[in-house]
Amino acid sequence: MRDPYQVLGVSKTATEADIKKAFRRLAKEWHPDHNKDDPTAKDRFAELNTAYEVLGDKDKRAQFDRGEIDAEGKPRAPNFGGGGGAGGFEGFRYSTGGSPFGSRGGGFDPGDIFADIFSETLRTGGGRGGAGAQTRGRQSARERPRGQDVEAEITVTMEQIVAGGKCRVSLPTGREVEVTLPKGVRDGQTIRLRGLGDPSPFGGEPGDALLTVHIAPHRDFTVDGQNLRLRLPVSLEDAVLGASVRVPTLTGAVSMNIPAYSGGGKNFRLRGKGLPGKDGQGDLIVSIDVQLPTIPDAELEELMRKRRAEAKV
Bridge partners of 256? Predict the structure, then answer.
């Protein structure tokens, strides 16, 4: 495998944030689901994950930089050569006289020398079980690269937002799940669904699903923050004389009294009839839209002429 720094396209002085950013960018670019026509994408993606498994862990990165592990994160076996024996390993080299368990310098723990050798032997098919297998078994899923996050969208009605409850959504993974709408959800808000993304190809935790919520347009209401706005048609006689009118809301029609001589554009507030939020329920702002007769009305015309004449006096 290539040098993990070259695989991720970063320098040896790169910060943890730089490495993470490079990995996310390249992993998204080379994800097999996005490159179904490229047979090399799967191998490239696997190479990226292996590189990040080394460089994304500060301890493993330090080991790699010191030459203690290779580009795949495997311990490098000690050098073997001609000469006498030590502890049953012919030609074992060590830097301090007397014992192969003396310090080798560089901060490496001598107590792990044989464990490293056994681990390397097992990885190359020289044995089964033992220290190497136990070391690998102790690596938790959290230490391995996560699966990729996936993105999805869902469109809900205003009635669904007010009523709350659950709705179903199909994810790019092919899975259909039931989602509980959080209180006060807004158009464009992203909900993170933990563990519902792509599985990790290396046994790590699965990615998350990022669900963007869209609110469907409504035939009656427009959204104004947490409030709703409604233009309510009112007949001319009701506007002049006053009346009790029916007003639609997201939870059913209610009665509202309008006083006499309510002009067009006058607003009325129905408290608690808007959208839910973290701080309570919004209001419904009702704007009067006075409707004129659609057919000629001789009596109304005569009344208007009389009022016009009176106004000129």
Answer: 245
Amino acid at 117: I
Residue 306 counted as domain residue: no
Q: Find the DSSP H helices in 108-184.
A: 113-123, 130-137, 158-163
Structure tokens at 2: 């290539």
Q: How many domains are contained in the chain? A: 3
Assess whether 164 and 184 both reside in one domain.
yes
What is the helix (H) or strand (E) element at residue 303, kind and residue range? Answer: helix 298-312
- CATH number of the domain within which 236 lies: 2.60.260.20
Q: What is the DSSP letter of 226?
A: T
> Which residue, among 211, 217, 190, 222, has the nearest Cα to 287 in the 3D structure?
222
pLDDT digits (tens, 9 = 90+) for 46-86: 888 888 989 989 899 999 998 889 988 888 865 544 433 33
Helix (H) or strand (E) holding 244: strand 243-247
